[in-house]
Amino acid sequence: MRELELELTAPEQIGEAVAVVREGEPVRIDLRLESLHDGILVTADVRTTARGECVRCLDPVELPVRVDIQELFGYSVDEALDYQVRDDHVDLEPVVRDAVVLSLPFQPVCRPDCAGLDPETGEKLAPGTTPQQREVMDPRWAALEGFEADTTTDDPGTASAQ
């Protein structure tokens, strides 16, 4: 068994959505390698920082990323194992990349109570406020705006325009 602490930089951008780990971002890995009969068991704790934009207010956000990985790298080619030991080495890059991408938030926010932007003005709303509900009139119905139903008739099933 071997235990290592690695400090690397991301060789390329990890992720393609709103939050990504940028190229050159430090990636810290606490790694444990255990020799087994079938291969090498890799257990790792990966820590880095993702950057992006809040999906509500578009402010920049920095999100800590922490992922635990446990993967078996097989000595022989076996359909049950996804990864193999090659020339007494294990390639951690695809394992780390896949785990980090899956842990990135789909819709990152700067704060859980972020109110976002006002849909009318586009200005950032103060924390704890909600946009004012405005009745939006469909312009196709504007000609009928002055039309009222006459409810003074004796028959409640009929109405006439005034």
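Second entry:
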Amino acid sequence: MTSSTDNDVRTFDGTRVRYLVTRAALRAATTMTNPTLSPRQRLAALMECHGTLLAARGPGDPLSFGDFRRALKNDLARLLPAGIDSPDLEGLPVVDGEDRVAEDAFDLAFEQRVLLKALDKPGNSALLINDQELQDEIDQETAFEILYKGGEQAGYVAGRSDLIRYPAGPVSDLCELRLPPRVVDLYQDIPYNSVYQVHWFPCPACRWPMRVAIRRSAGSRVGTARCWHGAHAEMGASYLFPLPADGGVPELVPEASPRRPGLRESVLFPSISEVPRALPAAGYKAVARGIWRYTTIPGLPELALYDRLSERGLTVELWPALDAYDLRVEAGPRKGRKETFKVDVKDYTSAMTLGKLIDAQEGDRGGAGWLVVPDYRAGQLPLLSGVCAKWDMKVATASEFGAMVCAKAGVSWA
């Protein structure tokens, strides 16, 4: 008979192997795309990453150095040892077609680290983490603790909302936000890899600085600007720009026509029709990357649901009891008994990791009965539905949930 303790150990070990493999691949990708390293330095670092990978795979499952390097540009799942199933990694490169580290790789490493912390038992830790990842977590936790320790619900909601709605902007405007001074200090200069000469471009979906690069194609050079969040880039936050003469202001051109959402999804779809204009890096700041990725990005669907449901007359509360969960919605007939929905919104790249996290926490720690994911994560519903059913939770995309509670309230969603 297999005990629950045995199952916990196997889950922890499998998750740790995925994490170690992803971390080794991420560091190798960073090494391969770093133009400042000499060939000797690059080879030494890659061999060290290969050694870490082999240690994670174990002596019975070797992988050649050549196969290791090829997998970085093709399929992260090929780096996992036999017996470790991870369909969410299949076909995912760590180095993209423009020889840049794929943004999803950063997210996967972070999500696996969160899961390991939830599964961890005393004495089992020793997570690998680099300086930038550590700083991202420190910034995120610092902002949360400062807002949380204020102990006042309205102040917490106002401050967290501002971090989501205004992740970047003119220094003069940032000083007017409803944030404690120590949180305002977490706004930094525009990241260097989001600046072309002296300009930067805000993502039309999240308003954070987009990633800037120079692409070579058919013997010519052209600039690219894409949101660091892959989902936003796929929505249409992906642009090209001709390289202007020195001192010229670059002008963006959409790289492709953005997809058109369905009627129901259009209610929450961000407005990206207006092409962002170049802004001067001087005089502007952006919130630290960790806060943007782990507060701003998941907070966008939370605020969008709050705004749209409030506009339709429903009673909605943001982050009740200082973030016990994300949304409390009351819906029902105008003169009848209202039904209460407690909602937790999650934006995870890996549905498998999120499912394991829900299992590790035995549902939602704050008592939410609904798990809601952004519409662009709709493909995660089959896996998450099975996991959440064990803990009496229901799962929906943001637009599905919005349409459902509006129907209960007798109002139109779309």
